[in-house]
Design goal:
Number of domains: 2
CATH class of the largest domain: Alpha Beta
Strand content: 15-25%
Shape: elongated
Mean pLDDT: 91
Distance between the termini: 51 Å
Number of helices: 11
CATH topology of the largest domain: BirA Bifunctional Protein, domain 2
Largest sheet: 8 strands, mixed
Bound molecules: adenosine-5'-[phenylalaninyl-phosphate]
Radius of gyration: 32 Å
Number of strands: 10
C-alpha cells in the first residue's frame, strides 16, 4: 500500500492538466484500477479475523487518501478548453416551456377563492368506495358505481370519479365553519369525445356555516364566473340531481366556441355543463361529523377542464393530454 501511495504521488506530481489527473484517477481508482484491484486480489478467507479487520481498515484509509489526493490535484490542474468556445457570448435563448392551460385557470381560481377567504386544499386520487360514493349518500345500486363508469382497482378501491370524494374528508378533518376549495384530477371510464376525457380536472368547493343559503351559493358562483371570464357570459341554472345535495342545480354556460349556435364541443346543444352545485345534504354533513340542525352549507363541482376550454376557446378536450407542443406553447411561458 505504501508503494502504491508513493507511485500515485509521483504520477500526480507530473500531471498538470485536469485530463491528465483524470487518467491517473482511472488507473488507480477506476473499476480496474490498481487500488480497486488490490482488494479483489487478496484472499480474505485465508486471513484470520484480526488480520482481515486490519486489512479492511488500511485499504479504506488508502482509498480515501487517494480520492482526496486526486480531488486536490484536479482542483489545481489547468482545465484545457479543446472546443473553440467563445466564453464571452451571451447564453443561447433557452426554452422554458409554458404553463399548462389547466394549471393557468387553476391558479386563477385559487386566487379568486383565496380573495374570498377560502382555504385551498388538494385531494387523493386512489380512494375508498366509502368516500367516493357511500359517504356522499350515493346508493349501493347507483349506476355511477358500475364498472362502465368507474375505474375499480383490484383491491376494491377506485380512481376517484370526482373531487367530491374530499367533501366528507374535509368536514371530518376541519369541522365547521369551513370555506374551502380542493382542485384536482378525476378519472372516469368514459368514451372519449370532444368534451369528455377519461382523465380531467374539477374544482370542488364547500362553504359550511350558520345560515348558509342558496343566495350565498349563487353569489359565490356569480363572482367566480365573472372573475374568470372577464366578460359577460350567458349562464342557465336548472334543477340537477346529485344524491349529496338537496336541492341540486346544474349551472351551464352558453358555449363560447359557437356562441350558442351549436357545435361538436357542445354536442349541438349550445350549452356546456360546467358547474353542478347545491345545498349539502344533511346526511353528508352528518357523515362529516357536522350537526345538520346547527349548520348548513353549499357545495359545487366545477368542471375545470371544460372551463379552460371555454376560457381559451379550445374546441377539443383531447388536446390537453396530447402533449402537442404547438398547442401548449401558445400559453404563457413558465416562470423560471
Ligand atoms: C360531479 O362530478 C359532482 N361531483 C359535482 C357536484 C359537486 C355536484 C358538488 C353537486 C355538488 P358531474 O358528473 O356532472 O358532477 O361532473 C361535474 C363537471 O365535471 C361537469 O359539469 C363537467 O364540466 C365535468 N366533467 C364531468 N365528466 C367529464 C369528462 N368525462 N371530461 C371532462 N369533464 C367532465
Amino acid at each position: 500500500m505504501e508503494t502504491i501511495k508513493d507511485n500515485l504521488l509521483k504520477e500526480l506530481a507530473k500531471a498538470d492538466t485536469w485530463e491528465a489527473v483524470e487518467k491517473i484517477r482511472v488507473a488507480f481508482l477506476g473499476r480496474q484500477g490498481i487500488i480497486t484491484n488490490l482488494n479483489k486480489n487478496v484472499d480474505m478467507r485465508a486471513m484470520n479475523t484480526d488480520t482481515r479487520k486490519a486489512w479492511g481498515r488500511n485499504f479504506n484509509t488508502l482509498k480515501t487518501w487517494a480520492e482526496d489526493a486526486v480531488a486536490a490535484a484536479k482542483a489545481n490542474a489547468k482545465i484545457t478548453v479543446k472546443a473553440n468556445v467563445d466564453l464571452t457570448l451571451p447564453p443561447a435563448p433557452s426554452s422554458l416551456g409554458s404553463v399548462h392551460p389547466i394549471s393557468l385557470v387553476q391558479i386563477e381560481i385559487e386566487q379568486i377563492f383565496q380573495g374570498m377567504g377560502f382555504t385551498v386544499g388538494s385531494g387523493i386520487h386512489v380512494e375508498s368506495e366509502y368516500y367516493n360514493f357511500s359517504a356522499l349518500n350515493i346508493p349501493d345500486d347507483h349506476p355511477a358505481r358500475e364498472m362502465q363508469d368507474t375505474f375499480w382497482l383490484t383491491n376494491g378501491q377506485v380512481l376517484r370519479t370526482h373531487t367530491s370524494n374530499m367533501q366528507v374528508r374535509m368536514l371530518q378533518n376541519y369541522g365547521a365553519p369551513l370555506k374551502a376549495i380542493f382542485p384536482g384530477r378525476c378519472f372516469r371510464y368514459e368514451a372519449v369525445d370532444a368534451s369528455h376525457e377519461n382523465t380531467f380536472y374539477q374544482v370542488e368547493g364547500i362553504m359550511v356555516d350558520h345560515n348558509i343559503s342558496i343566495a350565498n351559493l349563487i353569489a359565490i358562483m356569480r363572482e367566480l364566473l365573472s372573475s374568470v371570464f372577464h366578460q359577460n357570459i350567458t349562464v342557465r341554472l336548472r334543477p340537477g340531481y346529485f344524491p349529496f345535495v338537496e336541492p341540486g342545480f346544474e349551472l351551464d354556460c352558453q358555449c363560447l366556441i359557437c356562441k350558442g349556435h351549436g357545435c361538436k364541443t357542445c354536442k349541438n346543444s349550445g350549452w356546456i355543463e360546467l358547474l353542478p352545485c347545491g345545498m349539502i345534504h344533511p346526511k353528508v354533513l352528518a357523515e362529516g361529523k357536522i350537526n345538520p340542525d346547527e349548520y348548513t352549507g353549499f357545495a359545487f363541482g366545477l368542471g375545470l377542464t371544460r372551463l379552460a376550454m371555454m376560457k381559451y376557446n379550445i374546441p377539443e378536450i383531447r388536446l390537453f393530454n396530447s402533449g402537442e407542443i404547438d398547442f401548449l406553447k401558445q400559453f404563457v411561458p413558465a416562470i423560471a
